[in-house]
TrEMBL record:
The reaction(s) this protein catalyses: adenosine + phosphate = alpha-D-ribose 1-phosphate + adenine; inosine + phosphate = alpha-D-ribose 1-phosphate + hypoxanthine; adenosine + H2O + H(+) = inosine + NH4(+); S-methyl-5'-thioadenosine + phosphate = 5-(methylsulfanyl)-alpha-D-ribose 1-phosphate + adenine
An MF annotation (GO) of this entry: hydrolase activity
SUPFAM superfamilies reported for this sequence: CNF1/YfiH-like putative cysteine hydrolases (SSF64438)
Keyword DNA repair: no
Family: Belongs to the purine nucleoside phosphorylase YfiH/LACC1 family.
Keywords noted in UniProt: Hydrolase, Metal-binding, Transferase, Zinc
A Pfam family per the record: Cu-oxidase_4
Protein's name according to its UniProt entry: Purine nucleoside phosphorylase
Amino acid sequence: MSLNPVTHPLLHKAGVRHGFFTREGGVSEGIYAGLNAGVGSKDDPARVAENRRRVAEWMGGAADDLCGCYQVHSAVARVAESGWGGERPEGDAVVAGVKGPVLTVLTADCAPVLFADAEAGVIGAAHAGWKGALGGIIHSTVKAMTALGAEPSRMVAVVGPCIAQGSYEVGADYQERFAHHDPGSERFFRPGAAEDKRQFDLPGFVLWRLEQAGVGEAAWTGDDTRADERRFYSNRRAFLAAEPDFGRLISAITLS
């Protein structure tokens, strides 16, 4: 089976090679069946390595060209000047202004965000869960790209497959935390199944963060990771099914 990543017109227009990869086209088995790219998962490391090699090849590079952080739900953005050869510095975003590095993020319900400023030749990739999105990872990515010569108003950004509002129930305390930190964010919550529950619109909140950061144009692919088991891995779905672990999706971008 060939790889069949989700792509988006905004990034095609920017002239960058990119993909929000699904489970399709991988060699992992069992609960990881498909294209599990998670080096932190308990999957067979050889299978994960082969999956990552396939992604790198689809992106026009080699496995050593992949640049992805050891993700910690932070607001730290790193700069890649060449491939990282398997190194994974702590952080939750990577930016580049040169050809060669393939910027990546891993997700399994959190939002992957791919950025490009075609005129400046600067790209970025961010991992935005609720904690990172609230804590400033979007603004950090934009700031790091700007330092390389990008202009926020020229940037395009696409939020990839992630958990959608109808699939994402959280405690009411989340709404209070968001409202305290960022007034106006209450609109991204709606009542849940119980009085003390809410449903959180993660992609909507990330799009709002992109707007706040001055990004010229942004969109969400519209894919719900928890709802589509055939195409996507999901932390929430695995937890509810009492599975011991889960695969990780990889999203990637590189300058052509």
